[in-house]
Specification:
Layout (H helix, E strand, L loop, with lengths): L6 H21 L11 H6 L12 H15 L18 H13 L10 H18 L6 E5 L2 H16 L4 H4 L7 E6 L5 H8 L7 E4 L9 H13 L3 E8 L11 H10 L3 E5 L24 E4 L1 H4 L7 E5 L2 H8 L31 H36 L3 E3 L7 E6 L6 H18 L5 E5 L2 E7 L7 H15 L4
Parallel strand pairs: 2-3, 2-4, 4-5, 5-6
Antiparallel strand pairs: 1-7, 6-7, 8-9, 9-11, 10-11
Helix pairs in contact: 1-3, 4-13, 5-13, 6-8, 6-12, 13-15, 14-15
Length: about 475
Amino acid sequence: MSLDFDRDSFEKYLHQTVDIVSELYEEKLNRRVFAGKTPDEVLSAFDELLPESETSVESLLEQVRTDVIGSATMNIGPRYFGYITGGGNQVAIMGDMISSALNQNNLKWHSSPISTEMEKLVIRWISQFIGYPDSAAGAILDGGSTANFNCLAVARKNMADEGVAETGMYGLKPMTIYVSEEGHSSFDKAVDMLGIGKKYLRKIPVNDQFQIETEKLEATIEEDRLAGLNPICVIGIAGTTNTGAIDDLEALADIAIKHGMWYHVDAAYGGPAAAVDSVRSQFSGLEKADSVVINPHKWLYVPFEAACILVKEPVKLRKTFSHLPDYLKSDNADDGRTDMMEYQLPLTKSFKSLKVWMTLKAYGAKRLRETIQSDIDKATYLVELIQKSEDFELLAPVPLSIVCFRYTPQGLSEKQLEKVNQRLISEIETDGRIFLTGTRLNSKTALRVCIINPRTTRKDLGLVLDVIRDIGKELY
C-alpha cells in the first residue's frame, strides 16, 4: 500500500508548504519573539490519543501554520539575541527540503556517494575559510556538544595506551584535560561519558579579559604530572559562550607541544570570524590545533543542525571510530571511497552537507565575511549605546558579537541592582518584544545579547535598551 500522493496532490501540498514558509518570513518575523505560552497551553493544541484514522493534509498544514508556528520562539527574527543561535538563511531552507526528499543515509560511500563527497568538500572549504589546513578530515554532526565529545574521544584514543579500546581505562593513570572556567558544559559531559571523570577536568581561572591564565595552566599541568597523573589535552576556546572571549591560542599551542599533549580548539561560535580581517589576529594559533569544532549553524547562518569536527591528521580520526562488522563490509570497491562512519561516532546520519554547500556556494566567502563583520559592527554599536547611557553598565570586553551588560538606574544599591537585573531576565521573556539570556560575570547578573543574525538592524539594538528601560522602571 503506497503512502505517496499523485503528482497534482503532492504539488498542491508543496505549494501550501511554501506559502507557510513565505508568510513566516514576510509577516511574522517581527511578531513577539517568545510566544508567551505555558507548557500546557502549547500542548493543548495537539494533545490527543494516537490518531487511528487519516487527517487531511490541508488541515494538517493549516494546524502547522497556526499552532506550530504560533508556539515557536522566533529565533529567525531580528530581535532574538539569546544563546548563540544563528538566524539561518533561505537558500539552506531549499537545501533542507531537497535533503529530506532524497532521504540519504550517509553511513557508507555506496549508500550515499553524493552526501559523502559533498561532506568532504564542505569540510575542506570550511578549513580554508578559517585558515586551518585543508588536508584535515572531519564530519558534520548535530551540534557542538556532540562535536566536542567526538574530538575528545579522538584525543583520548590517540593519547592513551594502544590497548585502551580492548581493556578500557582500567589500570591506566588517570587522564587530565584542561580548559578555562569559561569552557562549555559539553566538556563536563564528555569527560563523564568517556570515563575520564569530571574530577580530572581541570578548570583554569581566567584573566580580566575572560581568557585562560596560561601560567596557571602550565603550573597545573606540571603539578598533575608530578602527582602521577597523565595530562593528555589542552582546550582553547575561540569565542566563549558567556562573553565571546578568545583564549591566547598561540600560547596554548606552545604549551600543548611542550608537554606532548593533544591541542583542541572549541571554535563552535567564534571560528568563522577567523576569516575576517578586523579580528583575524586574535585567532592566531588556531591552525596549530590537532582538532577544531566549528558550527556552521551558528556564525555561517546555516539552519540547525550542522556542527563540524576538523582533525588535522585523518588517520587519528579513523583510529578512533573505524569499526567494520560483517554487515558493513558489503562495499568492497577499492577506488578511493570514504565511509563517513569511520570518521564519527554516529552510523546513521542525514545529508547535512547539502545545506552547508548551498550556503557557501550561493553567498560565497566574501559575502559571508562581510556579513560576519557587519554583526561585529552591530555589537560595537550596542556597546557605544551602553557607554553613552547613564543607566547601563558594560560588564565584559566585546571581542566578537556578544555583549554583556546590566541595567543600572541611579539611586539603587548594589543589592537592589542585582535584584532588578535578575528579575529583568524573566520579565523580558514574558514581555516578548525581545529575547535575551542572562549569565553571571564577576558575581554580577549580566544581561547577555548575542548578535549573529543578518536580519538584526541598529534600530533593533536600540529597541533592546528601550525595552529594558520600559520593563525595568516597574521593578524598583
